[in-house]
Amino acid sequence: MKSKMYSTFASEYDEVIQDNIYNAHLERPTLQAMLPDLNDLDVLDLGCGSGVYAQYLLGQGAKHVTCIDYSKEMIQLVARKAQKADFTDKITAYSQDLSKGLPKEKDASADLVISSLMVHYIEDLNPLFSEVQRVLRAGGLFVFSTHHPFADFECTQSGNYFERELVQEEWNTVGKPVQVSFYRRSLTEITNALTQKGLVITQLTEGEVSEKVKEMDAGRYEYLSKNPNFIFIKCHKLA
Ligand SMILES: C[S@@+](CC[C@H](N)C(=O)[O-])C[C@H]1O[C@@H](n2cnc3c(N)ncnc32)[C@H](O)[C@@H]1O
Questions:
Q1: Other C-beta atoms within 10 Å of 227: how many?
Q2: Which of 89, 86, 72, 31 is nearest to 210 (CA)?
Q3: Contact at 8 Å (CB) between 203 and 233?
Q4: Domain Methyltransferase type, which positions (predicted)?
């Protein structure tokens, strides 16, 4: 799902998420805590955005990170950062619509696949998760985050939690209103798309907002401590 948020405003988005509440102090610490020892791993980052995860993964010893995103502007940001950090031999970054799968990736080529806040832009998760299963090595891990189905249910038009719906909203993430569309779906739809591909769910969490948010915005800290916003799932491809 294309949004100007990730193309026209890619640089602004990159700047904002370095130290904002939702990405820097809720999503990233929660997902990063679910990752294995990254030393020497081949990692695939689906919906990589501006490459904040790639920087983290390589900083933690990953062998190679392949960054994939629909947005060419995001891919340019990743390439620029890789050059600046002298990581060009350790990062491959290219533009690809992930709803069409991973046609450039070889079978059993990744130890770890991550995807942070991207899968809600994909209408049907089945083809993508099938591709994740294909590219993972035996024993490999898939760790991703997405909107919490209960939180998104507040946007329902149909009133039917089990019916997938396209939601359109205006977000102020980059300091001005930008139109964003995403898919709201049930937890059952998400977990079925994983388990039907033979991926075994080994951890599911609902995120923990960092203590630091208390100083940034006490009201938001209180809200996020009591209301789920994202969901995080870790799966294994059986050996
Ligand atoms: C919320 S941002 C998250 C970026 C990054 N994972 C992070 O945590 O900083 C979602 C990203 O998913 C990408 N995206 C959305 N739909 C996509 C699709 N169909 N194929 C590939 N990337 C997509 C967007 O371009 C955007 O960069």
A1: 13
A2: 31
A3: yes
A4: 44-144
Listed residue (203, 178, 177) closest to 191, CA to CA: 203
Q: What is the pLDDT of residues 112-159, one digit of tens each?
A: 999 999 999 999 999 999 999 999 999 999 999 999 999 999 999 999
Using pLDDT thresholds of 50, 70 and 90, give the confidence band for residue 1: low
What single letter denotes the amino acid at residue 61? G
Which pTM does this prediction carry?
Answer: 0.97
Q: Which of 69, 132, 173 to mutate to test the pocket of ligand 1 (most atoms within 8 A of CB)?
A: 69
* Superfamily of 4-148+186-237 according to CATH: Vaccinia Virus protein VP39 (3.40.50.150)
pLDDT in tens, 42-79: 999 999 999 999 999 999 999 999 999 999 999 999 99
239 pLDDT higher than 90: no
CA 183 to centroid of ligand 1, rounded, Å = 13
Name residue 80's amino acid.
R
